[in-house]
Amino acid sequence: MAEQSAPAIAGIHHISFTVRDIDASVSWYERVFRAQRLPMTFPHYGCEDTGYAVLLIEPNSGLAIGLHTNTGNSGDLFDEAQTGLDHIGFAVTSREELDAWAQWLDTLDIAHSGVRTVDEPTAFATLVFRDPDNIQLELFAPAG
What is the mean pLDDT of residues 117-131? Predict the structure, then answer.
């Protein structure tokens, strides 16, 4: 029997995070990514009675960022050492773009790793920072 190929994925449509303080998180994502909030809320799928989401659109890529709130949220900070999401990596085109992001985060007083260059297992550069819920966000540029 021939091995069957998996259906194709065309890209990432949206990312969604459950947050502790939806107003603070919306404000942060608007400020950092210049994301534009859609003027409505959406039911939190499977938790419609206890939560909702706000949707923001990042204007350069069109990426949708969903921020969810739920009454069942214990208020703990995110911890990538637990089962689930580790981090989100956003692609940028060059090392110069990473430098521009580092300067942008500095103007917003957002702590970050600084641009780091890695040569193994392949050459690339990254810039890491965290949102108000401690979710790690990474900007990634290929070497060259």
Answer: 90
Q: List the CATH code of the domain at 11-72.
A: 3.10.180.10
What type of residue sits at position 103?
Answer: Q
Superfamily the domain 86-144 falls into: 2,3-Dihydroxybiphenyl 1,2-Dioxygenase, domain 1 (3.10.180.10)
Mean of pLDDT values over 121-131: 91
24-48 tens-digit pLDDT: 999 999 999 999 999 999 887 778 8
Residue that has been written with the tokens 């502790």 in this structure: 20
Q: Enter the pTM of the model.
A: 0.86
Secondary structure in 3-state letters for the chain:
CCCCCCCCCCCCCEEEEECCCHHHHHHHHHHHHCCEEEEEEEECCCCCCCEEEEEEECCCCCCEEEEEEECCCCCCCCCCCCCCCCCEEEECCCHHHHHHHHHHHHHCCCCECCCEEECCCCCEEEEEEECCCCCEEEEEEECC
pLDDT at 83: 77
